[in-house]
């Protein structure tokens, strides 16, 4: 089997396990129907599941059973989903479409969308606390919870989103743009990789290279996102192209030019692959994810 | 010293320790200034701090140093503060005033208010994870995190708030009203007491009586809230009276009549005090808090 068909099999298998567990966990909640529906609506909207996949692939690279990371993987995807719901709100990015479907607040109203986001954020910490103890020892769980809060909160994703909204209609320099992206998207991508390292009990050196890898990957992800917004296919993308321009958002292509942004993307991808090599681990799947990020069309 | 002056001294001391720690923790965050300001604005708006106080007093009743509960107490108050910020939003209760000051979104705008709430919710889990290990052992921390998620999420506070919003402009029966209140306010009050029991390592019997106590206290708290909304002093209350009526919210006085609601309040207070007695612990401070809830004018 070629590397990429191995990847396809792995990808499909763990995506299915993840989605089943997320749905089961939410379905078990004793809560008003509208809240459960709003949570499930966005959770099952069919994202790429890149973050959980990174966690599973990191465990695989370190010689562990990927399923050990199932509950934290659910936590990451639930937390990511909450951030999309809140980002789409009228007072934030005011988006009507997400993954080709009406955004959460368009279907359930603004109050329920805010509450569904709040509930998803909250349950993500619960998922880690409730992971089976044979897969994750107590101390690792606490580290995963603490690091998730750091990646997702004021010093991470929420800080990045705040700066992003502050930066609208302003022209930002490259440092400001990198602050926004490294916090808004980067921290949770990094967390997804590092969570795998924590669960696997990786040594400090391996952790350092995996951290480098995830930083490069996060930047590549964001540059690709900006390029897609510029010239992606609206139908595949599931949201209008050019929406960053409409909102006067600073982007890599705007700052570096399209060719400059493409060169920066190549550079980040190369950096990511070099870091992977240095880990000395079986990183074929992580390489495939890196390729996916470089070439993705949605 | 009389019981109530002991209480005053205890109350002032731990309120101060709590507020200092919350401010310090938020001030240390590396995050955009507007987000930090929005978080601190609501955290320092001077609430009654009933929930952290319950935790401190429970530890005292069980013969432990109340300061062992400092970080979870901060977590509870930060989480409570997030819930107030989100509840006040235009799409939710649409309140302009809170504790006599403009609500968070009136000062910082809706997007920043949502993000400040998200950040406070997130950091509350971090506070528990980062509590000094000599005050709370690993296993107790994980239990506190899991129970906080349960109390605050879809099966707790967020579920109650969803039902509350669904119930506006509808006439609810007493069971529906009790679902809303036991979830929207009750679960976090119960958590505040039970967190003390977890940290103190209380036995099952003591836990059961403390749980009974907190359930009665939570209902008393809500009935008093409804009565205050009806005939409280707007200046002391810091928000307009009669706002429930304006929003056509179902309340205890509306369902039971003012006299009926007052009788129900007395009944819950009596239940709370009986449960406290059964614990056999030194519950003088918890009794004082119960009195405070019964008689509070804001």
What this model shows, in words?
Two copies of one chain form a homodimer. The two termini of chain A are 27 Å apart. The first copy, chain A, is globular and about 50 Å long. Chain A has a two-stranded antiparallel sheet. Chain A is built from 14 helices and two strands. Chains A and B meet through helix 2, helix 6, helix 7 and helix 8 of A and helix 2, helix 6, helix 7 and helix 8 of B.
Note the topology:
Two copies of one chain form a homodimer.
Chain A: H1 3-27, H2 33-43, H3 50-61, H4 70-87, E1 97-98, E2 101-102, H5 104-108, H6 110-129, H7 138-152, H8 157-167, H9 174-200, H10 204-231, H11 234-237, H12 243-246, H13 252-279, H14 284-295
Antiparallel strand pairs in A: 1-2
What is the terminal-to-terminal distance of chain A?
Answer: 27 Å
Low-pLDDT regions of chain A: none
Q: What oligomeric state do these chains adopt?
A: homodimer
Largest sheet of chain A: 2 strands, antiparallel
Helix segment tally of chain A: 14
Please, how many domains of chain A?
A: 1
Portion of residues within helices of chain A: over 70%
Brief characterization of the structure:
The structure is a homodimer of 298-residue chains. By secondary structure, chain A is mainly α.
What labels would you give this structure?
homodimer, 298 residues, mainly alpha, Farnesyl Diphosphate Synthase, two-stranded antiparallel ribbon, 14 helices, 74% helix, globular, metal-binding (chains A, B), Farnesyl diphosphate synthase (chains A, B)
